[in-house]
Amino acid sequence: MDERKVKFYENMLGIVGNIIPWSLKIPGNPERWAFAIHRLTGIYIALYFLLHVYMTSQTPYPKAWTSFIEFTTTNPLIVFGEWLLFGAIVFHGLNGIRLILSEAFALGIGRPKRPIYPYVMGSLAGWQRKVLWAIIIVWIILWVAGGVVLFHESGWF
Amino acid sequence: MVRESTLSLLQYVTAMILIIVLTVHVLTHIPGIMYSSYHESLEPNNVYRNYRIIGGVLAILLPVAAIHGLNGLRGILLELKQGRAWELLVNIVMVILGVYAIGLGMITLLRWLGILYWVG
Q: Domain A30-153: which CATH class?
């Protein structure tokens, strides 16, 4: 075979091209959205963690600490960011429990079936999907409750 | 060289530990549990009190969160782009960030616990 006619494609789509598949619209597949949200919340929490470790190390004295806390609890952008963080932690934690059960312990993913049309994957038909819907409901409730507390204490209402 | 399956297992194990220790850490800031408000839980004396009460939990939380977070970030970055040089770069950056976060956090923790004293 003439190697000059062979065109090689690298298995790389770049950052943007790879972020888009996270939001692939697959009908009847909320796990895909959970997958994308889990990753986005993970990135947010990981970046916050690094900042959190740095900031707590920079406030050894009560005066500096107090002025830092006053700034962070009154700055609307930071308060909003904290609310997003709370939502991210709640979703990531709850969905993480679902992932541990279904991926690490193979619980709630159903059994494989004969591929008869219309084929429904067993892994998407187990009780893990009900757990996912429950997680979304609990997540929204806790996120709203967290927002009420956070914004009320910051004097937003 | 650590196998990917080992890193994957590590991710699940650290996640299970985090569910417990991070919940404890977050609960210390939820109004009505230890303090009447979120802002009160951030006051210097109360932060110091938290370190005293759950210092052991925080000492577990710090390395476990660093490993879980940075290993997760590594996985995401390697999903987005593949290549030997990219993998090496990501691995090096994650190890540096991990050493930095665990080292700095542990120094802060030991200082708050009175084991190390503030310098400067």
A: mainly alpha
Report the CATH number at residue B77: 1.20.1300
Whether residue B23 lies inside any domain: the answer is: yes
Place of tokens 């038909």: A125
ipTM over 0.85: yes
- Name chain B contacts of A61, Cβ cutoff 8 Å: 118
Tell me the C-alpha distance between B98 and B63, whole Å. 8
In angstroms, the CA A148 to CA A135 distance is 20
Full domain range(s) for residue B69: 4-112
Between CA A83 and CA B74 the distance in angstroms is 25
Contact (Cβ atoms closer than 8 angstroms) between residue A154 and residue A81:
no
Q: Which of B37, B69, B82 sits opposite A45 (nearest CB)?
A: B69
Q: Is A18 on the interface with B (CB under 8 A)?
A: yes
CA distance A99 to chain B (A): 9
Interchain contact, B66 vs A14, CB within 8 Å: no
Q: What is the pTM of this model?
A: 0.86
Within 8 A of A42 by CB-CB distance, chain B residues are: 69, 72-73, 76
Encode pLDDT of A90-99 as tens digits. 999 999 999 9
pLDDT tens digits, one per residue of A7-49: 554 555 555 555 555 655 556 678 888 998 999 999 999 999 9
Q: Which residue of A has its CA nearest to B20?
A: A93
